[in-house]
Amino acid sequence: MKEAEIRIYYKKKINEFKKHNKLYFEKSSPIISDDQFDQIKKEILDLEKNFAYLKSNSSPSKTLGYAPSKNFIKSQHRVKMLSLSNAFNGEDLENFEKKIFNYLNQKIEIEYSVEPKIDGISASLTYKNGLFILGTSRGDGITGEVITDNLKTINDIPKKIMDEDFPKDIDIRGEVFIKKNDFIKIKSKFANPRNAASGSLRQKNSEETKKIPLNFVAYTYGYFESETIKKQSDFLSALKKWGFKTSEYNKVLKSIDELENFHKKFEKDRFNLQYDIDGLVYKVNNFELQKRLGFTANSPRWAIAHKFSADSSYSQIKDIDIQVGRTGALTPVARIKPVNIGGVVVSNATLHNEDEIIRKDIRIGDTVKIERAGDVIPHVVLVDLKKRDKKSKKFIFPNFCPSCGSQTIKEFNSTTKKYDAVRRCTNEGFECEKIAIEKIKHFISKEAMNIDGLGKKVIENFWEIGLIRFPQDIYNLDYNKISNLEGWGDLSVSNLKFSIEQSKNVSLDRFLYAIGIRHIGIENAKLLAEYTKSIKNFLSFINKKKLKEFLNIDGIGDTQINSLNNFFNNKSNYNIIEKLSLILDISDIKLNKNGKLLNHTFMFTGKLSNMSRAEAKSLIEKNSGSVVSSVNKKLKYLIVGEKPTNRKIDQAKKLGVKVLSQKEWLNLLD
Ligand code: IVH
Fold first, then answer.
1. Is the CB of 325 under 6 A from ligand 1?
2. Which one of 334, 375, 388, 579 is separated from 203 by 20 to 30 angstroms, measured CA to CA?
């Protein structure tokens, strides 16, 4: 068969698969046997294996086993289900602990609860008065799918708990997984044990879930108010006493050295376990400390997943493409001969940046070692020089942006006194096509404006046909034109309209993040929003050229100020923000108004003991107080730490501001 014919045949098989998948998962009324359904899937997978150019988002290789979430009622988690940040080596671990010490402004011996990271699907189980009444999947972390009946089929999950110590109202969280032995029996249906667990758990009909032996290990809680349990390790023991399965490998260790040694040993032994684990989880054992450390946007500061090393394989580089990112960074990507690494077919591998190519002297035609770990992008580790073609030439990195032709540069970093490893397109705004598309994709993304139904592919498509050039165009779309496009129907157009309309109500921090200023991630956007309080005020900082004042914000430094300057020096960027601020309803930052420190303003001078400024500020704000940056009449309290600036104390006394020691201040909060 010729390529064109193969493509047509493949498309036909994909359509068949889509049809039966829908009948099977969504309607739960298949019209062919399971074997026939498996046969279609297998044929598609084989075609993809043999012809690397065949790709489809609807392929079973991408959608294996997942029932569409439309099948389930949704339920908002009482406490968010977050993920964990990853460590891959000792250095990452040391940084993890260093950040904890910085946040606490104190170096102490930390005890860790060490738990195997089972590679399955997390679930949350709500028990009220000892009865299992609601079970949910993680979903997007905020809202999960109600899968109570399916979870009830799992033997490891207690349905009724009589133990009198068991809390009256609690969410127990843990991992649903399938043992390696059980997976072998159903291997043909699923790509890996994790997929099997997920597919089975999210069946519409719980009778289907019953057919696959699933297990559950409990490791944490969501909603739970306890006075008595003070440590994670004690909570794990309590789980066991209440009748849950917990990992027999859980233990408590004390230092990063101990963690690393245990990790080394466990990494080798893990193959003897009955189930797949992809790393170890370390949690600060003490709940009080966990509470102080709190969370960043997606993960707790008090826990980390230490992954096991990657799977790797060799392949040949067919070509090197240069991708242009949202911030203008040029990322070289190796297009390689497709190769199976740990069960996943890889055909692209990142080369990171220009320096990396030079350092490893990577060339088109080279045979290279490629590594992939978990959901991290596959990357090139080394070149097999013995296999290099004598005629091969060094790869020359482009001096001009492949998208807009602007000059590319490597910036000088004044802190590290080094040039950046990354080369960038010098275009700051929307004049570079690739940057503009990436900026719009960022704008609509989940953490930003969160416009459901406007995925990355749709943005690319709308760009191609000239429907959008700037973020504000999203709010002025030609829906007639869209409804005539292939793949769009009345329902999807009205859904799109609805979610665009909904996104108009946005908080200031999300908006500042959405506009995509380099170095202004979610956390920094929050800081700026909290400081400026409203979009009007934010823009007045820009107009009055008062950006330097942001240096008063703990966490904002010269890098962010320079970046804000560069961004707003570009007229088109400013115009876009102005236009958007007229279209959108950007809500002001409203503070918690019920705390003890309402209407109290604070300022610090000197070093606090056992607490960073960031923690102190967040403590004040949690209690409705605010932190100001200069001594003036509005200031109510000056908190004095070690080695304070005496001038500030004198000034405060003159103005009648109360001067407090750290202890007196903490007494205000009990
Ligand atoms: S704690 C905020 N403990 O890893 C705390 N998670 O990347 C988050 N996981 O979604 C969860 N074993 O599916 C925790 N002992 C363990 C775990 C574990 C596996 C999974 C879980 C979670 C993911 C986080």
1. no
2. 375
Residue 426 CA to residue 664 CA, distance in Å, equals 52
Q: Are 65 and 195 in contact (CB under 8 A)?
A: yes
Q: What is the CA radius of gyration of the chain?
A: 28
Q: Enter the tokens of residue 589.
A: 């930052």
Look up the CATH superfamily of 601-668: BRCT domain (3.40.50.10190)
- The arithmetic mean of pLDDT across residues 131-139, rounded, is 94
Choosing from 80, 83, 235, 252 the residue with most ligand 1 atoms within 8 A of its CB, the one to mutate for a pocket test is: 83
Is the distance from the beta carbon of residue 235 to the nearest atom of ligand 1 less than 6 Å? no
Residue range 75-307, CATH number: 3.30.470.30
- Look up residue 272 and give its two tokens: 């003897």
Q: How far apart are CA 118 and CA 173, in angstroms?
A: 13
Q: Within 10 A of 201 (CB to CB), how many other CB atoms are there?
A: 27
Which CATH code of 1.10.150.20, 3.40.630.30, 1.10.645.10, 1.20.1730.10 fits the domain covering 507-587?
A: 1.10.150.20
pTM flag (> 0.70): no
Q: How far is 481 from 533, CA to CA, in rounded Å?
A: 39
CATH homologous superfamily for the domain 311-394:
Nucleic acid-binding proteins (2.40.50.140)
d(CA 668, CA 670): 6
Catalytic residue among 13, 117, 204, 439: 117
| Class (C level, CATH) for 433-503 | mainly alpha
pLDDT digits (tens, 9 = 90+) for 12-53: 999 998 888 776 555 445 577 655 776 787 788 778 878 888
Is residue 175 in contact with ligand 1, taking CB distance under 6 Å?
yes
Percentage of the residues of the chain whose pLDDT score is greater than 70: 95
What are φ and ψ of residue 305, in 5° steps? Answer: -100, 125
